[in-house]
Amino acid sequence: MGNNLCLGKRSNKKKNDLEHQMFMQEIDYQLDKLKEIPYRQYQPPEYEKKTIIDLLQVIDIRSTHQSIIEQEQEKEVENVDEAKPDQFNQYQELGKEIITQIQQKIQEFPQDEKNWSLLLDDTKSPHFLRLFIRQIQLPDGNKINATFSQFIVPCKAERFIQFMGDFKDQIKLDNRIDQFKCIKKHPEKQEQLIYLSYKSVSIVSARDFIYFKKTEQIDKDNDIWCDASRSIIDNSICPIQNKIVRGNIQLSGYVIQPLRNVMKQEYFSQRFSTIVFKVESYSIVQLCSECDFKLSVPLYLAKGQVKQEMANYINLVYRSLL
To answer: Where is the START domain (predicted)?
Structure first.
């Protein structure tokens, strides 16, 4: 009992340290933003004489207006701008590059595993999630926390890809998402420009991302697919808003294939020995993410948060695919 109490105190202390650090970073960010606002002489507000009837009418109008906004956002998800093929020519090399890089990172992971911290090795849950984290330094000198995960899903690759690309389904899984939509898509290839924004939470400002995503079947004979994303810089698509911090997806994506493809390897045959007779029903996903949320969080503080959020998310994904 004493040990549990000590562990609880340590956990609370880490949580408080993280919240304090995030608070200070947010204060610094907002102060910098205030410096950009031109000075204006204060004008006292003018008040109007309104009855309670007038007030209730305004509230009703605002409620109706909010409902209209929500309906418009749903329409935006459905009504995607299908671009002409030549509009995606500028992303052709980017698509090849990120697809190759995702494959390389996943292939090199077994040799590089010693440089990662294991957060979770769940052999009791049906998804068999393994989760790793490490800190990496970007070319600009900024340090971010990268993650690598491996899990199985009860469906074929095409079903998983369709689910992960369904913006409505993804919004349901994560209540922090404010907007998630396709801005443009290639009419023939599986290429998209996507906008994703997260709501502000507590003292942390809202974040958003604009990125290019490409999905490709990299091995038809073995039904292996790769999905890769990277942020693009194009403020003409979605201008940066003052109240939102624009993050950067350095590289994010996954490789998915039938579980049977890897069962000849000793490690996988032992790990999934309990479902060996149902192997045809599953696919294995290997996912890596290098995202800069423009919020510096020390690795030791990020571990607990990433572990909890990722475990919850994979649980929801797995159940949704049953």
So the answer is: 112-322
Pairing of strands 191-198, 206-219: antiparallel
Q: Where are the alpha helices (DSSP H) in 123-228?
A: 157-164, 167-173
Residue 14, judged by CB atoms within 10 A of its CB (0-12, 13-18, 19+), counts as: middle
Averages of pLDDT over runs of 10 residues in the chain (322 residues) are 50 63 68 59 48 46 43 52 76 95 96 96 96 90 92 97 95 92 89 93 86 97 97 82 88 97 95 93 97 84 92 96 96
Closest C-alpha to 95, from 289, 203, 245, 251: 251
DSSP string, 81-123: EE--GGGGGGGHHHHHHHHHHHHHHHHHHHHHGGGSEEEEE-S
Instruction: State percent of the chain over pLDDT 70.
Output: 75
Distance CA 117, CA 303 (A): 9
- Whether the CB-CB separation of 48 and 54 falls below 8 Å is answered with no
Q: 279 and 261 in contact (C-beta within 8 Å)?
A: no
Question: pTM for the whole thing?
Answer: 0.76
Residue 297: phi and psi, rounded to 5, are -120, 125
| Residue 212: partners with Cβ closer than 8 Å, 6 or more residues away | 91, 94, 95, 98, 191, 192, 193, 194, 229, 230, 231, 232
Specify the DSSP element, H or E, that contains 135.
Answer: strand 130-137
What sections of the chain are H helices per DSSP? Answer: 2-35, 52-78, 92-112, 157-164, 167-173, 266-271, 299-320
Q: By the 8 A CB rule, do 224 and 261 touch?
A: yes
The tens digit of pLDDT for each residue in 59-103 reads 444 444 444 444 555 554 455 666 676 778 889 999 999 999 999
How far is it, in rounded angstroms, from Cα 78 to Cα 140?
37
Give the contacts of 149 (CB within 8 A, at least 6 positions apart): 129, 130, 131, 132, 285, 286, 287, 288, 310, 314
